[in-house]
Amino acid sequence: MAWLQELTLMGSGFPAGSLESGFGARADLPPMAVDVDLVPARRTRLRSRLSVLGEHDFRWFFVGYATSLFGSSMAPVAVAFAVLDDGGGGTDLGWVMAARVLPIVLVMPAGGVVADRLGSRRVMLAADVPEDFKSSETVVML
Asked: What DSSP string describes 13-75?
Protein backbone atom coordinates (compact mmCIF):
# COMPACT_ATOMS: atom_id res chain seq x y z
CA MET A 1 0.00 0.00 0.00
CA ALA A 2 3.02 2.30 0.03
CA TRP A 3 2.48 3.05 -3.63
CA LEU A 4 -0.77 4.86 -2.72
CA GLN A 5 1.29 7.69 -1.30
CA GLU A 6 3.16 8.11 -4.61
CA LEU A 7 0.34 8.33 -7.09
CA THR A 8 -3.02 9.74 -7.92
CA LEU A 9 -5.58 7.26 -9.20
CA MET A 10 -7.86 8.00 -12.12
CA GLY A 11 -9.57 11.38 -12.40
CA SER A 12 -6.32 12.79 -13.72
CA GLY A 13 -7.77 14.05 -16.99
CA PHE A 14 -5.55 11.84 -19.12
CA PRO A 15 -7.23 10.10 -22.08
CA ALA A 16 -7.89 6.40 -21.65
CA GLY A 17 -4.97 4.28 -22.75
CA SER A 18 -2.39 7.07 -22.57
CA LEU A 19 -0.87 5.72 -19.38
CA GLU A 20 -0.35 2.22 -20.71
CA SER A 21 1.69 3.66 -23.56
CA GLY A 22 4.29 4.88 -21.10
CA PHE A 23 3.18 8.47 -20.41
CA GLY A 24 3.46 8.80 -16.65
CA ALA A 25 3.31 5.04 -16.10
CA ARG A 26 5.75 3.14 -13.94
CA ALA A 27 6.29 -0.61 -14.00
CA ASP A 28 5.96 -0.98 -10.23
CA LEU A 29 2.56 0.75 -10.10
CA PRO A 30 -0.81 -0.78 -10.99
CA PRO A 31 -2.32 -0.01 -14.43
CA MET A 32 -4.04 3.39 -14.86
CA ALA A 33 -1.97 4.94 -12.05
CA VAL A 34 -0.37 8.34 -12.49
CA ASP A 35 3.00 9.25 -11.05
CA VAL A 36 2.76 12.18 -8.64
CA ASP A 37 5.79 13.73 -10.37
CA LEU A 38 3.38 14.92 -13.09
CA VAL A 39 1.50 17.20 -10.68
CA PRO A 40 4.38 19.72 -10.33
CA ALA A 41 4.59 19.79 -14.12
CA ARG A 42 0.94 20.91 -14.22
CA ARG A 43 1.66 23.65 -11.70
CA THR A 44 4.62 24.81 -13.80
CA ARG A 45 2.40 24.95 -16.91
CA LEU A 46 -0.19 26.97 -15.00
CA ARG A 47 2.47 29.40 -13.79
CA SER A 48 3.82 29.79 -17.30
CA ARG A 49 0.33 30.49 -18.66
CA LEU A 50 -0.35 33.07 -15.95
CA SER A 51 3.05 34.71 -16.39
CA VAL A 52 1.63 36.76 -19.25
CA LEU A 53 -0.29 38.74 -16.61
CA GLY A 54 3.10 40.08 -15.54
CA GLU A 55 3.12 42.20 -18.71
CA HIS A 56 1.73 45.64 -17.85
CA ASP A 57 0.01 46.26 -21.21
CA PHE A 58 -1.54 42.81 -21.39
CA ARG A 59 -2.79 43.09 -17.81
CA TRP A 60 -4.65 46.32 -18.72
CA PHE A 61 -6.05 44.68 -21.86
CA PHE A 62 -7.15 41.61 -19.90
CA VAL A 63 -8.88 43.64 -17.17
CA GLY A 64 -10.63 45.83 -19.74
CA TYR A 65 -11.73 42.90 -21.86
CA ALA A 66 -12.95 40.90 -18.86
CA THR A 67 -14.94 43.90 -17.60
CA SER A 68 -16.45 44.48 -21.03
CA LEU A 69 -17.33 40.82 -21.42
CA PHE A 70 -18.94 40.72 -17.98
CA GLY A 71 -20.98 43.86 -18.73
CA SER A 72 -22.08 42.55 -22.12
CA SER A 73 -23.10 39.25 -20.56
CA MET A 74 -25.19 40.95 -17.87
CA ALA A 75 -27.15 43.15 -20.30
CA PRO A 76 -29.59 40.40 -21.41
CA VAL A 77 -30.19 39.50 -17.76
CA ALA A 78 -31.04 43.11 -16.92
CA VAL A 79 -33.34 43.40 -19.94
CA ALA A 80 -35.09 40.16 -18.99
CA PHE A 81 -35.77 41.42 -15.47
CA ALA A 82 -36.97 44.76 -16.87
CA VAL A 83 -39.46 43.06 -19.23
CA LEU A 84 -40.75 40.75 -16.51
CA ASP A 85 -40.92 43.62 -14.00
CA ASP A 86 -43.10 45.63 -16.39
CA GLY A 87 -45.65 42.82 -16.42
CA GLY A 88 -44.48 41.06 -19.57
CA GLY A 89 -44.58 37.31 -19.85
CA GLY A 90 -42.46 34.69 -21.54
CA THR A 91 -43.70 35.61 -25.02
CA ASP A 92 -42.85 39.27 -24.53
CA LEU A 93 -39.42 38.32 -23.28
CA GLY A 94 -38.92 36.12 -26.35
CA TRP A 95 -39.79 39.01 -28.66
CA VAL A 96 -37.40 41.35 -26.87
CA MET A 97 -34.54 38.83 -27.03
CA ALA A 98 -35.26 38.17 -30.72
CA ALA A 99 -35.12 41.92 -31.32
CA ARG A 100 -31.65 41.94 -29.70
CA VAL A 101 -30.34 39.08 -31.86
CA LEU A 102 -31.93 39.94 -35.22
CA PRO A 103 -29.73 42.98 -36.01
CA ILE A 104 -26.63 40.97 -35.18
CA VAL A 105 -27.63 38.20 -37.56
CA LEU A 106 -28.47 40.65 -40.35
CA VAL A 107 -25.37 42.85 -40.04
CA MET A 108 -22.74 40.18 -39.35
CA PRO A 109 -22.17 39.07 -42.99
CA ALA A 110 -21.63 42.67 -44.09
CA GLY A 111 -19.34 43.23 -41.11
CA GLY A 112 -17.25 40.24 -42.19
CA VAL A 113 -16.79 41.71 -45.65
CA VAL A 114 -15.78 45.09 -44.21
CA ALA A 115 -13.37 43.42 -41.78
CA ASP A 116 -11.75 41.52 -44.65
CA ARG A 117 -11.25 44.74 -46.61
CA LEU A 118 -10.19 47.16 -43.84
CA GLY A 119 -8.57 44.83 -41.33
CA SER A 120 -10.15 43.21 -38.33
CA ARG A 121 -8.41 45.40 -35.73
CA ARG A 122 -9.75 48.65 -37.21
CA VAL A 123 -13.27 47.28 -37.51
CA MET A 124 -13.20 45.88 -33.97
CA LEU A 125 -12.11 49.21 -32.51
CA ALA A 126 -14.65 51.13 -34.59
CA ALA A 127 -17.43 48.75 -33.53
CA ASP A 128 -16.65 49.21 -29.85
CA VAL A 129 -17.74 52.86 -29.91
CA PRO A 130 -21.38 52.20 -30.94
CA GLU A 131 -21.41 49.23 -28.54
CA ASP A 132 -20.50 51.55 -25.68
CA PHE A 133 -23.27 53.98 -26.63
CA LYS A 134 -25.79 51.14 -26.92
CA SER A 135 -24.86 49.81 -23.49
CA SER A 136 -25.08 53.29 -21.96
CA GLU A 137 -28.47 53.85 -23.57
CA THR A 138 -29.74 50.53 -22.21
CA VAL A 139 -28.64 51.47 -18.70
CA VAL A 140 -30.38 54.86 -18.95
CA MET A 141 -33.59 53.32 -20.29
CA LEU A 142 -33.77 50.78 -17.47
From this structure: -PPTTTTTTTSS--TTS-TTEEETTHHHHHHHHHHHHHGGGGSHHHHHHHHHHHHHHHHHHHH
